[in-house]
Specification:
Length: 205
């Protein structure tokens, strides 16, 4: 368990040198997209899950986080956070881009993906327009070369689909029609999720 408390606090972040990352050539790059991230805490489990993932991966991979600069349900940006710029987090040991929520656009998301040029893109949940659906569209249309991994985080459970199903079911149908499992990989967090992925997307990796 990563020893980081998810509650509001000041973070020691340093602006990144423009157009350069402190990378080790031998390490693969992973770009993690998530709607809300540390120091946010109101989105609950997904934030802590990504923090735990960082702890496991950061010794062997160069990690980049693309997220927003506000907490779930909030309109004001985090204090002492530099928005719309790559920064180095001394606390977490990763590069983070806190996109200004009010100015967030598909153009900006694509620009940062191409800028990092990651070997892997890790997407959280399944229905986020900017941080899942748009990157998935880029992959399906061969606009990005990175290998894409989606972690549904319970989004395929019947109980989750039942909430606003009028939005989710058409999206899932489109994903099936495009056979997304042929272009991406899935990360299941438990056996129940693994079965849900296999049921919706037969042959999924």
């Amino acid at each position: 368990m990563l020893n980081v408390k998810c509650k509001p606090q000041t973070i020691n972040h340093k602006p990144q040198t423009p157009n350069k990352f402190l990378l080790l050539p031998s390490k693969f790059k992973i770009l993690i997209l998530i709607d809300w991230f540390y120091p946010g805490y109101k989105a609950g489990g997904p934030i802590q899950s990504v923090l735990n993932l960082i702890k496991v991966l950061k010794s062997n991979y160069e990690l980049f986080i693309l997220t927003t600069d506000t907490d779930h349900g909030e309109n004001q940006p985090y204090q002492n956070i530099v928005s719309d710029q790559w920064i180095w987090s001394e606390v977490l040991g990763v590069n983070i881009f806190y996109a200004n929520k009010k100015n967030l656009s598909t153009k900006q998301v694509k620009k940062q993906i191409l800028y990092v040029a990651p070997d892997f893109i890790y997407l959280n949940h399944l229905y986020s327009p900017m941080f899942v659906l748009y990157p998935l569209w880029l992959k399906l249309n061969n606009r990005i070369k990175s290998k894409v991994i989606i972690c549904p985080r319970g989004a395929l459970y019947a109980s989750a689909i039942a909430v606003k199903s009028y939005k989710k079911k058409p999206l899932l149908l489109l994903m099936k029609l495009f056979s997304i499992q042929k272009k991406i990989s899935f990360h299941a967090t438990n056996e129940r999720e693994k079965k849900a992925i296999e049921d919706f997307f037969p042959g999924a990796d």
